[in-house]
Specification:
Length: 237
């Protein structure tokens, strides 16, 4: 039997204090017990069905199921498409064109800007920053730390080798991590997997999998000027 307090306040007759009415618990229990349990069960089932159906219509944070015929297309950890021919030096795995100019020299030449150059279209830097943000929301290839591939700076550089006084200056870089089993021979060049979904879904902010999602969902608190993550999961401790 459903139990209620000795008296329950009802506003059925109006919101003012003059219209307050109290009911003894026996009267409430009598009314509740008159409702058939089968009707209560039906209402509960309908509510749960509605809740679960709403959940299935939400996009998957892995990027799965966006294409009905090919649900894996665009999902995180799926292979990136090749829309051009590969350019590996050996045709399948080694870095391309080792005879090319140093990439830092090319960068300094292209990006050197001694003075402010306003946009002819009146655009601010927020335009390219937003473009970079969108780019990072649709593609991300991880690094392979086992394949250290630095950029040598054996020339004067205002940041990495001022005046050219450092003979062994370099920019630490690593090659991109390729999909295991690819890059073994001609006809099987290296392929790369996208670590996030290929959709503009905020995965760059909220993460592409359950670990990042839970991490962002957890709140933090400030204690003694230090940020401490609060989590019941041992993954973050």
């Amino acid at each position: 039997m459903v139990k209620f307090p000795r008296k329950v306040v009802s506003f059925a007759k109006g919101p003012s204090q003059d219209h307050l009415e109290t009911y003894p618990k026996d009267r409430f229990n009598h009314r509740i017990n008159r409702v058939p349990m089968s009707r209560i069960a039906v209402l509960v089932c309908i509510s749960l069905t509605f809740i679960f159906r709403r959940g299935t219509n939400l996009p998957d944070f892995h990027g799965l199921g966006n294409n009905v015929d090919h649900p894996e297309w665009g999902a995180n950890h799926s292979m990136l498409q090749n829309n051009t021919t590969v350019a590996f030096a050996n045709g399948f795995s080694s870095p391309a064109a080792p005879q090319r100019a140093n990439p830092r020299l090319i960068s300094n030449y292209l990006m050197g800007q001694p003075s402010v150059l306003p946009s002819t279209q009146g655009l601010s830097d927020y335009v390219w920053v937003f473009g970079q943000f969108i780019d990072h929301d649709v593609t991300l290839v991880g690094n392979n730390s086992a394949e250290f591939f630095p950029i040598t700076i054996n020339f004067p550089d205002p940041i990495f080798n001022p005046g050219g006084a450092l003979p062994n200056a370099l920019i630490p870089m690593s090659r991109s991590a390729h999909v295991p089993g690819t890059g073994t021979e001609l006809g099987n060049p290296r392929r790369y997997a996208n670590e996030i979904s290929a959709f503009v879904d905020g995965s760059g902010v909220y993460g592409p999998d359950s670990i990042y999602r839970r991490l962002v969902a957890h709140t933090y608190r400030r204690k003694d000027e230090d940020i401490q993550w609060e989590s019941s999961s041992p993954e973050y401790h």
